[in-house]
Amino acid sequence: MIANLKNYLYEPKSKIGWVHGLIACIGALFCAYLTMMIFTSLARNDYALRIIPSIILTPILICAYSLYFLFTQKIISVIKKIFTLLFVLLIILIISMKGF
Q: Which of 10, 30, 63, 87 has its Cβ near the most Cβ atoms within 10 Å?
């Protein structure tokens, strides 16, 4: 069973399956949300001027991240990209909130 799972994750796919698409969409949601949190924490304007660009740019970022994740061949590569990008965005968010 573990061998089948490893084969499924590491095998390059010619078509995008529902698991690949679902992982990419969920990862894109988290990455876009964290990116806009970083943007909002760095903006030092009025509350409306901090939130309005986030409302407009979040769907665009979701589409961009989804395409970035969907154009990888292997599902394991998608998972690696998502976790790497989430880790980098979380580090940037923590640094920007602490003000170093």
A: 30
Sorted by where each begins, the domain ranges of the chain are 30-100
* Contact indicator for 27, 33 with CB cutoff of 8 Å: no
> Percent of the chain scored above 70 by pLDDT?
95
Separation between Cα atoms, residue 38 and residue 36, nearest integer Å: 5
Question: pLDDT by residue (tens digit) across 52-73?
Answer: 989 999 999 999 999 999 988 8
Identify residue 56 by its one-letter amino acid code: I
Instruction: Say whether 45 sits in a helix, a strand or coil.
Output: coil
Let me know: does 36 contact 61? Beta carbons within 8 Å: yes
**pLDDT for residue 38 is more than 60:** yes
Report helix, strand or coil for 71.
Answer: coil
